[in-house]
Design a protein that fits this description.
Blueprint lengths: L1 E6 L4 H9 L13 H14 L23 E4 L3 H14 L3 E3 L10 E3 L5 E3 L5 H7 L22 H18 L5 E6 L1 H12 L16 E6 L6 E8 L10
Parallel strand pairs: 1-6, 2-3, 2-6
Antiparallel strand pairs: 1-7, 4-5, 7-8
């Protein structure tokens, strides 16, 4: 089984951070920038090419000859959902929302006292109105999908473990699973794969719409990381 972790396209919060070096003035669930929308086109074109056999007969470890995704999952955060939909529509595959692959912290903003305050998140009607073709969690209500305090660090690692175990239980040899998520969650996701918590002194930087590939032996549960942060399908001006 192959698992592909794809970070969302550039959001307005990402753009803000690049310009001012902080998250001051961020929004709780940002939309994509114009650059982000251009990134989506490049990503969808790249991963939608029909897979073909490697002419030298070897395995295509770098996906030079296509991807062939069989299952698509996205975070309920708008930037990740829009990224996943760009691919789902291009390859004509259903997209399922997994709330557990949201970014660290959840839906929140900083108040005047500097406290990080949890917010509701988008309600079910928002997704049904704007993204009618997406499969939503049955328990997503009109009260919003988050509705919790700011998420503590230890909960993020638990989510990563939950998602890996879900993938292993739902999928089989030959499946090619794409997850559209976030840069922070990638670090918790790869921490579980490595069986090593990265801690404060190590961090994997992954660019917008970058692709990382994990090959999983379902019998032994061994995970081979084929590559991380693949962006060679983007022109230089779209790498953010």
């Amino acid at each position: 089984m192959q698992v592909y972790f794809i970070r969302h396209a550039q959001s307005t919060n990402n753009e803000l951070w690049e310009k001012v070096g902080s998250g001051k003035g961020r929004t709780e669930d940002p939309e994509l920038t114009e650059i982000g929308k251009q990134q989506l086109v490049k990503l969808a074109d790249f991963v939608s090419k029909k897979p073909r056999e490697n002419p030298n007969g070897r395995k295509d470890y770098q996906n030079r000859f296509g991807f062939g995704f069989t299952h698509l999952y996205a975070s309920p955060m708008v930037r990740a959902l829009q990224t996943g939909l760009s691919v789902a529509r291009k390859i004509n595959k259903p997209l399922t929302v997994w709330r557990e692959i949201h970014e660290g912290g959840g839906i929140f903003l900083e108040n005047e006292a500097g406290e990080l305050v949890g917010l509701p998140g988008k309600p079910r009607s928002f997704f049904e109105r704007h993204y009618a073709e997406v499969k939503l969690p049955d328990d997503l209500s009109e009260e919003g999908w988050w509705n919790q305090p700011f998420e503590p660090y230890e909960n993020r690692l638990k989510r990563a473990e939950l998602i890996w175990k879900r993938i292993l239980s739902l999928h089989q040899d030959g499946d090619k699973v794409a997850i559209f998520s976030h840069g922070g969650f990638f670090n918790y996701f790869i921490s579980w794969a490595l069986k090593r918590e990265l801690g404060e002194n190590a961090w994997f930087e992954v660019n917008n719409v970058s692709i990382s590939r994990f090959d999983v032996n379902l019998e032994t549960k061994r995970i081979n990381i084929q590559y991380v942060n693949k962006t060679d399908f983007l022109p230089p001006e779209l790498i953010t």
